[in-house]
Design goal:
By secondary structure, the chain is an alpha+beta fold. The protein folds into 3 domains: 44 residues; 227 residues, FAD/NAD(P)-binding domain (3-Layer(bba) Sandwich); 121 residues, no CATH class. Helices cover 39% and strands 24% of the residues. The strands form 3 sheets. Strands 8, 9, 10, 11, 12, 13 and 16 form a 7-stranded antiparallel beta sheet that branches. It has a 6-stranded mixed beta sheet with strand order 6-2-1-7-15-14. Strand 10 and strand 11 form a beta hairpin. Bound molecules: flavin-adenine dinucleotide. The site of flavin-adenine dinucleotide (FAD) has 32 residues, from helix 3, strand 2, strand 3 and strand 10.
Length: 408
């Protein structure tokens, strides 16, 4: 048989010839298409997704824990720029609200086996206790997960990622000041959302005490008499006053005061007049009135030396990244931004709450969609799914402001 016999023309004339072989042709085509679909299904089923997590804070390690449980995920690598001891010994306390608490329980976090304290549906623990627990779980499962401490994600690592084979999902959880999302090519633009609230924060360090997890204290409708500081008119009866939250562990105690935007003369005075002694006295009085019974009172001389505080009320604003998810076709890489790297509050107002954990509710579904996505349409639909979830979180914050976190 000559070479020409095998040309396309020969094949077509052999199989599509009008001599009764049409049936065979159709059968052949159907078998070919069926085989291709089955192969595609099989490839998708066995395909594993490599996951890279940047940042081993509460959000980064929770994201790792979620990814680790997914049968779709192969190798996981976590990069954390600080040394392990520094991360595990962070002095602050972390609070899980009831939504985050239930979500974490459903994914297998056993709060009964964690040092901490439950109160009114909230759970408080040292951030290091939570991180150590998750690290232990990661180690127990023997999953192919490497947590690299003292390893900063930088340009060099980004280049390595781009050279990799197969699909990668990068979960950026490098906190408020993180630069990794921009380094990976996501837009740097952020939006500021007003929470229609003004707030101030104070922090006290009591060096002689141990860091014992301690429940939060809330008080509402507080009014302050500022007549001793000048001719400030008093709030009328019935004006909704300030809300106070005392939080943190027994050694590092924090307070935040918040009030909804309104015409209160006290709000106006504390917004505009910079009198440090006025704010200091308000925080001192608040602490001594509402502290736990077991805590000692603070003296004026102690707060002078050991309390840091905002000198006036600031507008509470959330900063949100405009672009929190992207796909890079040339290196088959998805990037998603989570936690405080995506959404954070202005520091002076002390409204740090672990909102970021809520973004992770959609992570498991997103991982599945990312692994299965083949066509342009399914890739866009995976991105749209994650974007819709982020938008929902941002919208509820801008609509309800601090209602859930401060005023209820
Ligand atoms: C003083 C203080 C007190 C707080 N008190 C409370 C409280 O009482 N209750 C509460 O609920 N919340 C509290 N918070 C807030 C809480 O800590 C945050 O909401 C939470 O830590 C956010 O988690 P995250 O994982 O998004 O970011 P982070 O905890 O900031 O973690 C980001 C991690 O990424 C790492 N990183 C950054 N860049 C890179 C890079 N290029 N490569 C590798 N790693 C990188 C950082 O080292 C860091 O470990 C407090 C925060 C502070 C600062």
């Amino acid at each position: 048989m000559s070479h020409d016999d095998f040309s396309d023309g020969w094949l077509i004339s052999r199989y599509v010839a009008p001599d009764g072989h049409l049936f065979m042709t159709v059968l052949f085509l159907l078998a070919f298409l069926g085989g291709r679909a089955v192969y595609g299904q099989f490839r998708r089923r066995v395909r594993k997704l490599d996951v890279v997590v940047i940042g081993a804070g509460p959000v980064g390690l929770t994201a790792t824990f979620i990814a680790m449980r997914s049968p779709r995920v192969g190798q996981i690598t976590v990069y954390e720029e600080s040394p392990r001891e520094y991360v595990i010994n962070s002095p602050y306390q972390i609070t899980f609200d009831s939504t985050s608490f239930s979500f974490l329980e459903t994914i297998g976090v056993d709060f009964n086996n964690m040092e901490g304290c439950h109160d009114l549906g909230l759970f408080y623990t040292k951030v290091g206790v939570y991180l150590q627990y998750i690290l232990d779980q990661i180690q127990c499962t023997g999953h192919r997960c490497k947590v690299l401490f003292g390893a900063k994600f930088d340009k060099e690592l980004r280049k390595n990622l781009e050279r990799g084979n197969g699909r990668t999902l990068v979960i950026v959880c490098d906190g408020k000041k993180g630069q990794s999302a921009s380094l990976l090519g996501l837009d740097e633009f952020t939006d500021q959302v007003s929470c229609h609230t003004f707030g101030a924060m104070a922090g006290i360090e009591r060096p002689h005490l141990r860091e014992v997890p301690t429940q939060e204290i809330r008080a509402h409708n507080l009014n302050f008499d500022l007549s001793a500081y000048g001719p400030y008119s008093q709030d009328q009866n019935g004006t909704s006053g300030f809300s106070l939250k005392i939080f943190g562990n027994s050694k590092y105690r924090y307070m935040c005061l918040a009030i909804r935007r309104c015409d209160s003369p006290t709000l106006k005075a504390l917004r505009t007049i910079l009198d440090r002694s006025m704010m200091r006295n308000i925080f001192l009085k608040c602490f001594n009135t509402y502290k736990l019974k077991t805590e000692p009172c603070l003296s004026e001389s102690f707060v002078l030396n050991h309390m840091k505080y905002s000198p006036r009320l600031f507008e509470v604003r959330y900063t949100q990244r405009c672009e929190t998810v992207a796909y890079f076709d040339d290196c088959d890489m998805f990037v998603v931004v989570e936690g405080e790297a995506a959404l954070s509050c202005n520091f002076h107002t002390g409204m740090d709450i672990n909102q970021g954990i809520r973004g992770l509710h959609s992570l498991d579904q997103f991982i599945t969609r990312v692994t299965w996505a083949e066509s342009e349409k399914s890739i866009s639909s995976a991105l749209a799914y994650k974007m819709q979830h982020s938008t929902k979180l941002f919208t509820s914050l801008s609509r309800d402001g601090m209602q859930e976190f401060m005023f209820s």
